Amino acid sequence: MGSKEVLMSQSGPNEQPEKRMESPVEVGHLIVPKSPSLSADAVEYTFRAHVEHVFTDFGCADTGIVDYASDLCSGFVRTEDAFNEKTPSGQTVWSITQLASLADASASDPEKCYLRSKNVGDVILFFNGFYPDGLKKFYDRTHEQLLDYKELAVTYFRRAARASSDLAFELECGLRSPSAGERIVPAPVLKRVSDNFDFMSYCLHEVSGSFRGN
Questions:
Q1: Cα separations (Å) of 183 from 10, 41, 60, 178, 180?
Q2: CB 100 within 8 A of CB 144
Q3: Which DSSP state fits 92?
Q4: How confident is the model over 26-72, as pLDDT tens digits?
Q5: Domain segments of the chain: what residues?
């Protein structure tokens, strides 16, 4: 489904603040609601509920996109899952240029290419929509001031889609077993994510506002 096929209503989503939420706590650059009465699973459920409400309220009937956005947000609750690339010295990779370079270096391995290309797109999509000021954290001053982050995200989502197709073929032929616990997103869903980058960013911004009471 192309970006023109995703409909947006003229009115914004009805805000439904969570009664049990207390003051937020910053984890990296993600504002996560803090409440002693909420478990990690409950926070994840809350994210999913907000995402589904906002996306459907703006006319998105594509369950693949809604599920993808829900997984993206709930995955970023656990920062170790979102920022899991390390340098040889064991430091977390924060630069978009470095993340992209790792993905480029994995082109010959469909599984690594899929994971790392998708990660580049995910990081940009999430921060562009949910916490756009956080993108400044990723600036590599020698390379990144002039980067078009949207174009970069779209490019790497499409690379991830191609790698997903390759993995699906290898899995079907019994040539490869997926990594434990890793769910491969189908190529058509990743293509629709890339086609609807602006819409998804807008909706994620609305999800962010619903958490912060904006």
A1: 35, 19, 23, 8, 9
A2: no
A3: B
A4: 433 344 444 445 566 777 777 788 899 999 999 999 999 999 999 88
A5: 23-212
Position 34: which residue type? K
Query: What percent of the chain shows pLDDT beyond 90?
Result: 33
Pinpoint the alpha helices (H) of the chain: 40-57, 63-77, 79-82, 96-105, 110-130, 149-172, 187-195, 197-212
Packing angle of the helix pair 197-212, 40-57 (nearest 10 deg): 120
Question: Residue 10 has which token pair?
Answer: 């003229």
User: Which residues on adjacent β-strands are paired with residue 32?
Assistant: 25
Q: Count CB atoms within 10 A of the CB of residue 209.
A: 16
3-state secondary structure of 95: coil
Token pair, residue 54, equals 């906002």
CA angle 9, 11, 15 (to 5 degrees): 120
CA–CA gap between residue 146 and residue 81 (Å, rounded): 28
CA 160 to each of CA 121, 125, 142: distance values in angstroms, whole numbers, following the listed order: 9, 14, 26
